[in-house]
Amino acid sequence: MRKEWIEELIQRLLEGQKANQKDGVYAWMQIETAYQSNKIEGNTLTRKQVASIFTRGEIIPDDNSIRLVDIEETTGHFVMFDEMLKTLNNSVSNNLIKKYHLCFRNSSSQDVRKGSYAGEYHRQKEREESEWEKVTQRMDDLINTYNERDTHSLESLARFHAAYEAIMPFQGGNSRIGRILLIKECLRSKQVPFIIHAANKDTYKDALNKAQNEQLEELMDFFKKEQINFEREIDKILSKEE
After folding, report:
1. What SS3 state is found at 154?
2. pLDDT confidence of residue 108
3. CATH number of the domain within which 79 lies
4. Which PANTHER family does this chain map to (predicted)?
5. Which of 107, 124, 196, 239 has CA 20 to 30 A from 149's CA?
6. The pTM is what?
């Protein structure tokens, strides 16, 4: 039953993407993932503003100033989410992860000012070449180990996520990439995906820190709670569409 639910979700997401729907499951996931994941990292846009950018291509002003980087992160996240759906059945690879980063950061004025490169692992100065090689090797080792299996349990996803977050291969945007990978791999493994809520940031970060020290239980429990939240929200949307 759960597998059928997930397959229906995937179908609705792909149909929504193809039709460029501005409501329903696809639009909700686009808006919610962009809002929550960016907010965890300090983005100041409200959910209403994120929704307006997605549905109308414009931003709703309020009494606070609006930062250019917040808009760039939001639109970049929309593009990355679409790329995730297009590559849903692809195995995790360095090229795939770099493509997600390119989608997310390609238009970032921050990257231009800092001299960093969208879609490339962290390398700021030539004297850091050896450190860049270490990052690449660590990512190779992580991905090769992960890809020894075709589908993954929640424990496997938690282990991969913790290890990826410890490497932090890019100069910026690492955690957004990590969280979109969680959604992708849940769907590919026919598990209920989840969106990590900014309101749960402290719990998430604490559990992630423990997972990086081989204590995976709290991160797995946290993921399970967010899965329950996700399933509840999706069921509400599906019931309205019926």
Report:
1. helix
2. 58
3. 1.10.3290.10
4. FIDO DOMAIN-CONTAINING PROTEIN, FIDO DOMAIN-CONTAINING PROTEIN DDB_G0283145
5. 196
6. 0.92
